[in-house]
Amino acid sequence: MKRPQHLLSVSDLGVEGIAEVLRVAEAFAEVERRSMPKVPTLRGKVVATLFFEESTRTRLSFETAAKRLSADVLSLAVGNSSVKKGESLRDTVETVEALGIDALIIRHASSGAPHLVARWTTRARVINAGDGWHEHPTQALLDCFTVRQVLAERKGAAPEDLGIECFEGLRVLIVGDIRHSRVARSEVLAYSALGAQVTLAAPGSLLPPSLEGWPVKVAPDFDAALGDADVVSLLRLQAERGSGSFVPSLREYTAGWGLTARRVDLLRDDAIVTHPGPMVRGVEIASDVADLPRTVVTQQVTNGVAVRMAILFLLLGGEWSGDGPQE
Ligand code: NCD
C-alpha cells in the first residue's frame, strides 16, 4: 500500500495499514527484548514532540521509540516556550520545522489541530498524539496490538500467526465517557476496521450527541453487555473536558458504570480489560480490578513503544510490506 504522509486518524491507515503497523511493531517488540534494544534505523532523523496538553505515557513512549530507532529527539516544553508569550500555533510549528525536523508529534486540546499543522509543514511528517475529543490513533493501534498479543499467548502461538483474523467477530465493549474520548473514537475505527463488533456502554449524557455513521451498537443493559464481551475498554471521565457536569456525582457514576468488584464477576473468564491510562482507581475501575491479571494496562504501556517505533519507521522511510524493518 502507499505510505500515508501523516498519521492524523486511524482512517489514514485503512485495514491494510493497520495490519502493517501490527506486523512491523511485532518485529520491533522483538528488538526491545534484546539486551541492547536499539537499532540504527532512523539515525540522522530528528523527531520533535510538541505537547500542548498533559501526558505521561504517550510522550515518554514516543520519545523512547524514537531513541530506540536512533533518531534525535527534541521535546518542546510548551509551558516554558514562547507559546506562553503569545506565539501562535502556526508560528511555533514553522519555527520547529525550520530546525530541520523530520517528524512532529503533536498533542493539542483542540480537535483538528494536527490536521492544520499537517497543512503548514512542508516536509515534516505529522503524528497525532491526541487532539481534543477527536482521535488518538496510536493508542487504538497499541490497544489492538495488546489484545492480539494476549490472544496469541493463550493459544501458545506467535501474534503474527494470528494475522488480523483474530479480530473478526471479537466483541469489544467500550465503557464510559465516550462523548469526550478521543481514544474511543480511534478504537471504534480501528477495531471495526479489523472486523470486531463494537458496543458502547455509557450513560446517555456521555454518549456523543449523534452516533450516525458510527459502526457500533449501544448496550441496552450494561451488566448483560459485560457478560458478552471479549474485550472491555474502560475510559477515564475527561474532567478537563467538562465531563463532571454530565454525571450527577462520581459516586453515582461508579455505581452505574464503574467496573466494580461485583461487575467483574459478570465477565467471561477469558475477557480482557484494557485502559489507556491514566486510571482513576475507585471511579471507572475498582482498585482491586485494576490489579487483576486480566487488566493489561502495563502491557499496553510496554507495547506503546513498539507500536510507535513501527509508526515512526513506516512514516520516515521504512519499507511497507516485505521483510520488515532492516537494520
Ligand atoms: C488518554 C488521552 O490522553 O487521550 N491517555 C493516553 O494517551 N494514554 C486518555 C485519557 O487521558 O483519559
How would you describe what is shown here?
With 327 residues, the protein is of the alpha/beta class. The protein is built from 12 helices and 9 strands. Helix 1 crosses helix 5, helix 1 crosses helix 12 and helix 5 crosses helix 7. The chain starts with 13 loop residues before the first helix and ends in a 12-residue tail after the last helix. The model has no long low-confidence stretch (mean pLDDT 95). The structure holds N-carbamoyl-L-aspartate. N-carbamoyl-L-aspartate binds next to helix 2 and helix 7.
Give the structure's gist in a few sentences.
The protein has 327 residues and is of the alpha/beta class. The protein has helices at residues 14-32, 57-68, 89-98, 113-120, 137-155, 159-162, 182-193, 222-228, 250-257, 261-264, 287-290, 297-315, and strands at residues 46-51, 72-77, 103-108, 125-131, 171-175, 197-201, 216-218, 231-234, 272-274.
